[in-house]
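> tool_call: predict_assembly(chains=two)
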Amino acid sequence: MQPMPYIDQHRERFLAELFELIRIPSVSTDKAYQAEVRRAAEFLRERLLEAGADHAELCETGGNPIVFGQKIVDPAKPTVLVYGHYDVQPADPVELWETPPFEPTVRNGKIFARGACDDKGQMYMHVKAFEYMVRSGTLPCNVKFMIEGEEESGSAALPAFLRANQAKLRADTLILSDTSMIDNDTPSISTGLRGICYLQVEVTAAARDLHSGIYGGAVYNPINTLCQMIAALKNHANRVTIPGFYDDVVELSTQERTQLAQAPFDAQAYMAESGFYALQSEEGYSPIEGATIRPTLDVNGIWGGYTGEGSKTVIPAKAYAKISMRLVPNQTPEKINQLFTDYFQHLAPPGVRVKVTPHHSGQPIVTPMESVAYKAAEMAYQTTFGKAPIPQRGGGSIPIIPLFKEVLGLDAIMMGFGLDSDALHSPNENYGLFNYFRGIETIPYFYHYYAQLVAKLSK
Amino acid sequence: MQPMPYIDQHRERFLAELFELIRIPSVSTDKAYQAEVRRAAEFLRERLLEAGADHAELCETGGNPIVFGQKIVDPAKPTVLVYGHYDVQPADPVELWETPPFEPTVRNGKIFARGACDDKGQMYMHVKAFEYMVRSGTLPCNVKFMIEGEEESGSAALPAFLRANQAKLRADTLILSDTSMIDNDTPSISTGLRGICYLQVEVTAAARDLHSGIYGGAVYNPINTLCQMIAALKNHANRVTIPGFYDDVVELSTQERTQLAQAPFDAQAYMAESGFYALQSEEGYSPIEGATIRPTLDVNGIWGGYTGEGSKTVIPAKAYAKISMRLVPNQTPEKINQLFTDYFQHLAPPGVRVKVTPHHSGQPIVTPMESVAYKAAEMAYQTTFGKAPIPQRGGGSIPIIPLFKEVLGLDAIMMGFGLDSDALHSPNENYGLFNYFRGIETIPYFYHYYAQLVAKLSK
């Protein structure tokens, strides 16, 4: 790898700008932060112009604005579209943070803050790599940035925006950094992501809350019932019991599973890093397979009855849960949503009424590894890490990626530089300084090889 | 029944005073209301003096004060000790009240307010019955009032108070109105109450909250696990599965069950009045038996993960529940607490750690029906209702009643005038005007017959 003096010289400023962005609490799931979300968008628009964009704007969507910026060096050259998001998850439970969530703090070579990795840190690498290429006169193709502010709350405005702006967003490839790599010595590129189907359920047993002394033993308790229904959604093999749930799952071949199993995995280190006391996966599959190539069902939230201090002898009228299922190819959220709803209604005993409300959903994806863009990414990692990246299936979901394919015809190249231990969505989220700067160094090589390969092909 | 002109003449004032007491939000489970709780105690002390007490005071306990008042007409005569409580349950969920919880409103002949029945309405009947007897010169024996302010939060100060004040509280019988009767045409006296064992459980699977996309499928989710553990606490026959749970239960004879089954019961009316969609009881027992002579297990509250608006893809570190069991003779809360804790720990899979914390508890009780006091109560109901009261086992618990027996040697006569449909602990709690005034009329007859029977016995 050749030295990149510009990046070294501006290292402190590259970090200071990221910190300034992180200090804006752009939480998109809570309307109370709406003004901050807009402030983050405006900040980003200004930085894109400073970095060298010809043009940058806030595109109004009815929700949070989408930041669009571009630099067209030559209409005849290929165009790279960069996707990212400037919104973040809520910081709660705030009391579990060691340092304030919106005041980035460096400890042990890592930046601790909400959004440090997801996705402010990873997204801003692209802005700084772009600046580097502009300033060093090495930008080999056109660039468009599309940075949204609703990824953490379901990207509600994005589908309509894509459909309405197909010409504006026209590009030859799409890159983003919103996934992870195996570890700092083992670069990897995400070649697939699970989909998601997220629902809320409400179980009602009575018209009002009642005294558990007077009625207990004669009636249905909606909390006990909800627990029984949730327990019935999985069996002892830790498989989801919803009829038809696995019907469309593409089983990987033994060869594919062997390949995936080559990624280094240390169960003790994984537990130490995640803080879990033990691992548990679907019978017949390893924990890593459980977290990547297998579908899941998790309760993300539950509530009902008296949850305050002390005790209250109540049988509540209702109990609630938020339940999500991670999906793998070729499951579809539409079908899984229907199967879940039907089965959950079926599980309900005669004494309760059940309401199932879909929240957000996303299709599972697999990216082709034979494309020019994928090859360019591989070569970029090879250059900066000195070794070829391992293709890796990721466990999380980026629900809008299938939409890019559908509306813009683009497969996404997922160049994640984060680690699974970065505590995304959790207290003490962090992102390594190594990862931030290694990303800024690797991205220009992607542009370099991509332009080179496209030029070769068109000869 | 002879007319009671004094009560008719002062009807409006008797109601206005109760309303004034109800307007003081004396919620004992929430420390924010501490000043209001004390204001209610002071109000009651003043009313006892006005009604004719020789003496009335607030007894400090470290918690909420106990209101003590007395009138000694003749030390040679028998003494009646009246127990009640002036504290109330929280009003939440406040949005489900049709009229403000602390502004008593009369609709369809019922007073709607928190505490209208439990226990302000039922307790204040004794104060007004006492006033009537004093003013009409018919008080046939000594009276002591002991009205506490922590019944709804576990009566923490009462045991020490009883032990420290045995001479002051010395009496020949104990009466209270904190239970219900079958219906307004079917008077009944409670002859037994279930005990209670109330606990909080905490299930921890990890040291911190984690992203469900990255870890889902590889780890234990504490909410799913808690649901499975709760589901395992009951079987399909709706019996509690805790080993040894039923070992000490005194099974009623067929004759006793036949007698209890004579109380009128209309399942449709019961459901309409409670708002439940269906009834469910332990296999082999009727709903009424399930709610009175059988032990239960109910989850009173559950929480964990993200419970706000929208969605968050989290696997939380912890999940919690509040669980209570109603006990019947001869179960003891000490033993049940231990059996529950052992079994709940046993149910925990290797991936979670479980903490069980006892809240409050109370022994189940059965009152003798051969006592002079019970006979006097029977005669009083016979006089005002024109028919003999049915002995009835109640479902709820008044945990301190066994303590009266243990420390003061007194069996309690439970002259409840409320109805099960009064929505105790629920939104829109209410108490019938009929019940309030019928209570005020019936209580003086109890004193009358009690003094008469004691005098006859001592001849």
